[in-house]
Amino acid sequence: MSDAHPCLRCGACCSAFRVAMYWSEVDDRGIDPALTRKLDPLRVEMRVTDTASLRCIALQGTLGVDTHCSIYAARPSPCRELQAAWEGGTPSPQCDRARARHGLPPLTPEDWPAPGSDC
Ligand code: SF4
Ligand code: SF4
To answer: If you measure from the C-alpha of residue 108 to the centroid of ligand 2, how many angstroms do you get, rounded to a whole number?
Structure first.
């Protein structure tokens, strides 16, 4: 098991789903409006770098190798709600689906440090 958080070696869910939010969340969280586009009268979504990959414009790095969110502190609610599989001891079908889409195996409990361990 690497010491790095598994999400920092992944990024698959940032390139698998459209990330929509209520329009006021942009101001409330301090998200740069230029990173979003209007979806409907009530919602905006994060822009993607191309519609085929759905890679979020805020995702930095190489997917599956070394990634991070460039607006992590301000990331929208759908990003906050998506749990990495087994991080809290429970499975996450959404995480598994995103990783499978990019040819990555699902996370397992062994990808996380045991409670009380130093790593
Ligand atoms: S797909 Fe799962 S492991 Fe990958 S970045 Fe998203 S939550 Fe983390
Ligand atoms: S805003 Fe950040 S966490 Fe959310 S999809 Fe984009 S890169 Fe991922």
So the answer is: 22
Residue 10 CA: nearest ligand 1 atom is: 4
SS3 assignment, position 114: coil
Residue 32 belongs to a domain: yes
- The whole domain housing 24 covers 6-111
Q: Which ligand is nearest to the CA of 77?
A: 2
3-state SS track over 80-91? HHCCCCCCCCCC
Inside any domain, residue 86: yes
**What is the total count of domains within the chain?**
1
Mean per-residue pLDDT over the chain, rounded: 94
Torsion sign over Cα 84, 86, 88, 90: positive
Which of residues 113 and 26 earns the better pLDDT score?
26
Tell the residue nearest (CA) to atom 7 of ligand 1: 84
Amino acid at 61: G
Q: Is residue 58 part of a domain?
A: yes
Residue 1 is assigned to a structural domain of this protein: no
Query: Which pLDDT score is estimated for 119?
Result: 43
* Residue 21 Cβ < 6 Å to ligand 1: no
